[in-house]
Every structure is written in structure tokens, then in C-alpha cells.
Amino acid sequence: MTDPVSGNTPQGVVEMPRDDEYDEDAAQLANDNPIYALIIGNNDYQAAEFNSLLGAVADADAIENILKTSMDLRDSQIVSLRNATRQQMLNGFHKLEEITKDKEDPCMIIFYAGHGAQTPRPQGWEDYAADYEMIEMLCPSDLGVVGKDGKVVEGIPDRMVSALLNGLAQKRGNNITLILDCCHSAGLNRDEETDRISRSLPDPPPITAEANIIPTSPSLEPLNGEPTRAVRVATGFGGKYATSHVLLAACGRNKRAFEDRKTKHGYFTSALIGFLQGKKVESETYLSLMYNIVMPTWQTPHCMGVNADRPLFNRRGSRSDPSYIPCRVVDTSKDAEGKQQVTFTLLAGLAEGIVPNEVFDLYKAVPFEGEKNASPPFGMMIATDVGTTSTVLQRLEGKTTPLRVPKVFYAKRIAWSNAPASIYCEDKTLLQSLSRVTKSSVSVKAGKVLPTDLVDDAAKASLIIKAEGDDVYLERNDPLLEEHLPKRFPRPLNRNAPEQIQGVISAWRHFNYHLKRGGRDEFPQIRMEMHYLEPEDGDWDSEHPEYHPVGKNLLAENPAHIVVSDDHTKRPLGLTLYNDGDLNVYPYLFYFDPTELTIMPWSMVAEGAGGDVDPPLLQRSQLAVGYGNGGVDPLMFYFEGDTVRDIGFFKLFITYSPANFRSLNQERSPFPRATRGGGGPDEDEDDTGLELGEAERLAVEKELQKMHADKWGVKVHTVVQVKG
């Protein structure tokens, strides 16, 4: 291709198919799944020591109204609770389960507005919440009063909420959205001198270990068919990467959510309603909500869940195309001559694999995977100043880009500046058919075959294309893999489907690039272990199993050679990430499968509507993945067909500041078959309601985090499975 700036052909630039072919009439499919909702709003708290709120009931009313007016819900589809007691809130979950009986994959929305609180973790919950000594809870209206049984009414802890959601997902499918407009931390309840009221309670009654017992309901019955994805107990109210539901939270774990004294609404609910009004919900994802929602700088909503890249309320199955990277107009100013200066920022940088001089098409929206963009690109930009997790884009000379650009837009690579691949193919006719491919039905992330990719010696090639009649096979020259995998990919491709072949080549290039690129900094304080898991109570048939790690660390050596017996193929596996350092980190864990060419995100960081995102791996702490409060599914070893040896890679990307690694995702195998399993605070407080001494310590830690914000690194563990 020619450089859009100089007109020359740059070295090492890989041209990508363009989205020039778009569908003017493309429209999202209507939601065929019925929507049901549990709506809870608690203003009035019975215990004298807890202040009541002004806007939680109004928030619940507003959400219920938009569900009825914009999504056509009837009263029979809504469980509506106001100023609900603990038992009424628990009964609400069971009622939601009851009214969705006999419905196929219903969409369930659970909304709670009211007080939230933190309390010390009960004894016996150490394996569940090993990373944090506090647990979160929802606050029913009778919190703290003495019940008929003579006991003080407790809050509903995160563990119980998670189990309730897990049970719903097992029986009804994981088409669940949990929306919480409450605090996730303790602190002073009311900011008397401001227009803000905090939705948190100080010193709630402690949670006992028995609080996780889930009341039975006569409506419980086995799920007909498998849920859309496997489910596990989530951390807090959403897990680090929850599988049972998507969480939309008003704020982070140790932050407070506020309501406006003047409008008598929560800031988060107001922003959510403002976003939803007038929108085609089926064309928006949870991620686009996070990128576009307008919030005060002092409150950052969080979004968590494996389905965060699906349409809002999961109205269809496809995920948004991860090759479209979000961008923002982050700074506007005037130069010395009074001309408006605008900075365009791509929300990805060196850590995510961006390098200078890469060229991007610009779009106003993101299509779903496998679909064409409904609109053509509105402009083109080039990467100039590439930082750790963000990149400055500039307009290209000679290319038309509007002077006014949306505040949030999306960029798709059309030219990579990383070194081109070396490909060998003797069949010139086949090469010609591949070179004519300019568009693909799959999401091409890393370009088509160009003459600059080709070598004249198979021994020098990293990928060999061989034609045998109408079958086309791909073979790789990769010393890292050849000891454990055949050189030839197992499934043939169709010679008469060049788009399919091109898609596999592109996926292979994307896979190799992200597997083999290194990090910039060492993170010796971060380590990773993998263990087999067993149920805490020893009951493998439990409806809500909670696992804990047992036995030796399977990653004690690298590469790890693990002999897997038939019994072990049925045992779940979990990872534990350890942070032995003094700074919090953001870990992004992927599993790379070289047979399927998939890159599966296993543990990711929440998306925040702002920069103040909770770090999952705290200083001197550990993070469970696949068990406890890790919120993701355990893995299992297994062998396909006659396979007796396999290999995979756990790759952990580590940063000191929030990043956006979703562009690495390659969850679909490119081969024609499904993938394999696998107002401000008071003077004596800071904004979290902490005492000054604690606030000063946190301020020092925050400055240290800033000093290290540009550091990033990787940890790779190779796992070789041998059938024994």
C-alpha cells in the first residue's frame, strides 16, 4: 500500500481489508426474548441509627417507568419493591425466578437503589474472599432492627447475592443484568454541607457466617438445557469477570455513590436514564454505555462481566467486534492565534500492541462480530505519540476527516507497523486468489497476504500454505510448538473460499504477535500459581459448589509438564495471582490456544466510566481466579479425540493503571468449527469517608501509583498436558 502521508510504501506495514463495503440498511435484530425485572428502591430505614435517603424510591420508579415505556414491559413482568425488608428482598429474587418459569433464556434486570455498606469478613469466609478483609452488602429497610426470632436483621452480603444470581443463571440462563446505585463502602451517611447525599451506612450490624445460607423456594427446578455460559460465584456484587451476570455499579469498591439533594435522584441512575432515553437499546452494548455515560468526575461507575461486550440486556448473542478500539476527544484548547486545538486519544497503547505510524479508519459505532459496519468510515488517522495505555492520533494529510468529531468514536486498524510475517506458498494461482481478497466475512485483525510477506524458501517461512486438490492446509515453523504439536493445523480449508483462508491467516498473525511480544518492565513481585480445586464441603454434587485449591502448585516449573489422568480431566482448576509488592496492579489474564488460534480472556479488569477504576490485585494480596470470589469459571484439562499431548499459554499482562486489552480478544476460532472449551466531603474526611491518617497514607500510595503509571509487563506460563 502507499503511505497516506508521504505517498510511499512504508517498510513493515501490513495492509488490512477495509470496511468500504457497508450495509446502509443494516439493522439489529429485535429482541425475541421477554424481559423481566426485579426493581427495589429503599429510602426509609427503620433503625434510628441509620439515616434515610431521598431519591432511592424515585430512582426505582424512574427505572420501572423506562422499562414500561421504552421496552413495553407489563406489570406482570415486574417484581416491584419499595422500602423492602430483608425477607421481602430475598422473596423478590424467588418471585423473579417464578415468573420466568417456562421462559426460554429470559432477559432479567435486577435494579437496587438504597444504602450499601461494608463489614468485616466473617470467620470461615477466608477462602471465599482471600483478597480483602471486608465484604459488601445491600441494606434492607429493616437492617439493624430486632426480628421476630430475637436476632438483629443483617444485611444481604455479596456472597448471598452472588449465590442467588448463580442459581438464577443455572436455571434460567445468564441473560442477567444487575444494576446497583448504592455505595460499596462504609463511610459517613450524609454530607450535610453539600448537595450530595452518600448512599452508605456506617457501622452496620456484622455479618455472620450463616448469612450465606440461601432460603429454599418451591419454584426451584432443574434448568432445561445448558445456560449460555457456565456460571460461578462472583466477587463482591459482580466478580472480577463475572459469568452469571453483567454488573453496572454506581461506583468502585471503596468509593461512595451519591444522590442529588435537589433532584432527589441518584447521580448514576439519572445518567443511566439519560443515556437510555431515545436510544435503540439493541444497538448499544454495556461497554458503549460506559464510554458514553456522563458522570461527575468524583464518581466512577463500573461495569463487570463476560457479557459486557454484548448488547444491553443481552438482546442478541453476538459480541461487539473487539478490533474497533474506543477513542475520545480528550482535550480542547486554543493556540496562540486563537485556533481551536483538539487532541484525539486512542484508548490503547504500547501495552495493547499499538506502535507508531499505524493507520486507522474511524467509525461512529461498533458492529457485532461477523457483521458489516452499518456506516462507512468518517475519516482516517495515524498513530503518532504512543504511550503505555493510550495513543495520540492525528489527521492524515490528503485524507478527509471532519473538523467536528464525536466525543467518543472508534478506530479500526487498516495498517500494522509490526514486522510482516514470512509466508511460503508454491501455488501461484492460490496466491493470486488470496491477493484479490479485500474484504472478509470474518473480523480480520491483522491484514491480508501481501507480496512483502512472501519468502522463496519454506525453511525461512513461519507459515506454509499447501494445496492438495481443493483442500488447503496451513503449516507453521515454530520451534516453540513443534515439540508438542504437529506442524500442520488439523483441519483443511476450502481452496474455493479464499476469504476463509485469509481469515485464518489473519487470526494466526494476530495470535502470534500478541503471544510473542514481550513487556517493557519486569514485575518480579507478581507471581502465579495453579492448583486443582475441590468443593469446600467435599460435596461434588452441591447445587452451589464453592471451591478451594488443594495440592501442589502445577506452575512451579516453566514450562509446566502436567500428566493428566482420566480422573484429572474431570477436576476443575484455578489460578491464584499474588502481589508481593507495595503497589496495586491491574492484571489481564488470557489463555492462548495454538491449535484453535483463540485468545480467551479469563480474568479482566472492570470497565469504568472514568479513570478511577478499582485495581483487582491489591498490594500484599492475592486474587483468586476460577474459585472463591474470583467470579470466573474454573478450567478443566481435557484431550480431544486421540490427542495425547497438548500445549497452551497463560499470558498475564500487568499495568499500574487501567488499560484496554479487549482488542486482543479472539474468542472465535477462525477454523470452520466451534472453539474448544476453555458535593464534597467534610473537612475531616477524604471522599471515601476515611480518617485523615488513613487518607494521607492512601494519598502517598496514589502518588506512587502515578509514578509507576507508565510501566507494564507480561508473565507467560507454558502448560504442556500429557495424557497419562
From TrEMBL:
Keywords, comma-separated and alphabetical: Apoptosis, Hydrolase, Protease, Thiol protease
Gene3D superfamilies noted in UniProt: 3.40.50.1460
Peptidase C14 caspase domain segment(s): 36-290
Record bears the keyword Membrane: no
Protein name: Peptidase C14 caspase domain-containing protein
Top-level taxon in the UniProt lineage: Eukaryota
Any one of the GO CC terms: cytoplasm
One Pfam short name: Peptidase_C14
Protein family membership: Belongs to the peptidase C14B family.
InterPro entries cross-referenced by the UniProt entry: Caspase-like_dom_sf (IPR029030), Metacaspase (IPR050452), Pept_C14_caspase (IPR011600)
SUPFAM superfamilies per UniProt: Caspase-like (SSF52129)
GO biological process, one term: proteolysis
Example of a GO MF term: cysteine-type endopeptidase activity
Region annotation (Disordered) ranges: 196-225, 665-691
